[in-house]
Amino acid sequence: MNLTRGQxxxxxxxxxxxxxxxxxxxxxxxxxxRQALAAYQRSEGLEPTGYLTAEQWASLRKPELEPExxxxxxxxxxxxxxxxxxxRDTNERQHRVCVKEDFDLGRREVTAAxxxxxxxxxxxxxxxxxxxxxxxxxxxxxQDADKSWRSPGFGQQETHPVVCVSWNDAQAYIAWxxxxxxxxxxxxxxxxxxxxxxxxTQASRYWRDDLAHDQACGYANVAxxxxxxxx
Length: 231
What we know:
The chain is of the alpha+beta class. Among the domains are: 5-61, no CATH class; 109-200, no CATH class. Helices cover 33% and strands 10% of the residues. It has helices at residues 5-17, 31-43, 54-60, 112-122, 127-130, 167-180, 190-198, 225-230, and strands at 69-72, 76-79, 95-98, 103-106, 134-137, 141-144. The strands form 3 sheets. A two-stranded antiparallel ribbon has the order 1-4. A two-stranded antiparallel sheet has the order 2-3. The N and C termini lie far apart (55 Å). The relative contact order is 0.12.
């Protein structure tokens, strides 16, 4: 089967972890890696070809890392917001958009625990950690050099969505994830995200405009009255 270089690198890591000397995990499958793979296949009672079948790859990959996905059917929708909408930005001109293809979207955000597994696997440091921190809200948005996904300035549990990560950080996480799972993961396009987030509605919030303010906490993770009082 055809595998990406990242997936081949992961196979080498997995073989090394199991005691089959595949050599450096560089994604290049030379004779040493082929011999290690053949030895693994022999230990499993399989034909020692040195080449993986789809079923053998499934036994090596890490399904526990794979996020739960939801299938979204493509269709036309009205992207953007009307001029009278509260909080609207000037670049949100309404226009009709066609999401041509069905696509899969994660049921939940990537958690701090999932991102931590990625970081600990390869020593990755986010752009906020390497640079000037991330933006935090303190009555207004400001960049804080002491803040990152590890310490965003508020209580964070492992099951909470990871924060203070950039587009480049997300791409690095996805590349790592694709190398250790069945692959095919990517960020949604702006149109795909808005289409899915609207949930088939044309309101400013998917739970209807007439409930937008006083019912928001029942539908989304937003600032509550306590937060407003502090700000």
